[in-house]
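Could someone model uridine-5'-diphosphate-xylopyranose with this protein?
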Amino acid sequence: MRMSVIGCGYLGAVHAASMAKLGHEVVGIDVDPAKIEALAAGKSPIFEPGLPELLVESVGSGRLSFSTDTSAARGAKVHFIAVGTPQKAGSYAADLRFVDAAVEGLMPHLAPGDLVVGKSTVPVGTAERLAKMIEPTGAMLAWNPEFLREGFAVKDTISPDRLVYGLPPEPADAATAQALLDEVYAEALSHDTPLVATDYATAELVKVAANAFLATKISFINAMAEISEAAGADVTQLADAIGYDARIGRRFLNAGAGFGGGCLPKDIRAFSARAEELGKGEALNFLKEVDAINLRRRDRVVELVVEALGGSAYNKKVAVLGLAFKPDSDDIRDSPSLDVAVRLNGLGANVVATDPEAIANSRRMHPQLVFGTTEEALQDADAVVVVTEWSEYRALDPVAVAAVVRGTVVIDGRNCLDLAAWRGAGWTYIGLGRK
Ligand code: UDX
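Reply:
Sure, complex below.
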């Protein structure tokens, strides 16, 4: 099937390349010429495992092309909207300006019977408004939220754990839209991927509800970490024990520096803002608490480092291991790790921060920070703080690291190190929510 993907950021670039991999003929469209030039040359503008190989293969096969000109969407049957919906300046609401611009730009190139498919995360009610907007073109609209996780984006797109279709209200239109989407996702459907076919509002809500739930789960365990710290308990054992209950589950119960990234923080805020607009702010008041618990964990990491350094970080060398908001990503949007590095630096610590992939992005945003290799960060450090659980930090040998640092104190901001091994090697090990 011929399709266009408007917006070639995280979501769009992965979606376009994955659709081409599935055998479709895809054009990716973005307003950023540098991004399009890189993608057209088969180069990934982001660090995402598997994406570079997929781009080279799909561009090479001729099934994937890129353009800065929206008219390239002409002739495609399905048009995905995959632009960003960042937090609006001065408010918690989502900024829909890119979504609106993408749809407006696409309209002159739509033919009757085309299907516009929204993938961006939007406040509930947006799809209905956009459907009315495109109605005069004779094209239809469906909402098909994306649940991809960074670091697993290609896998999550090609083999999603579920598909959600928000279909038009008219049954005949809904059937036509569903038939087109079934063709797009024929491969996943042939593997019995669960499908929920529903209305626009439910489909829009599924995405924000899922992210709100995940954020709540993380903040729940981080709240337990706060209590564990006060009560002398161990939150990792607590998580293991409650996680054995299949109704609770152990996944997303890792206490630490908290959640960040381009989705969870902004999505829970936009969801609260939308609930207030709907006169139901009260129903989502708990998300403000989820946000507050999350942000307190960053304060706690900084506090623990300062305590470990004897009450002041001034002029002490601190090795900050990790800058990305999570491992296997170079994304620093709302990253707790980068935040911790910046705050310690602001307290007068001599911070040397490192990350396998996120240094370039971090330097662009915080040129005042000093960056280095893991070895440079660790050399003569008075304290070591691990804030992103990259496998290479988990695999550090505590005996070897002890030989190069000045102070053998480690703050494990992700509870990812082997406590017994580090303590056994003579380290003062401080975890979050652990004795
Ligand atoms: C998230 C959702 O998982 C995904 O379904 C949605 O489409 C987009 O948002 P992503 O932002 O890639 O994906 O990251 P995710 O793996 O969910 O992690 C989010 C944050 O939570 C990270 O900062 C991570 O370190 C933190 N986290 C995750 C924890 O602190 N504890 C956990 O147990 C799990």
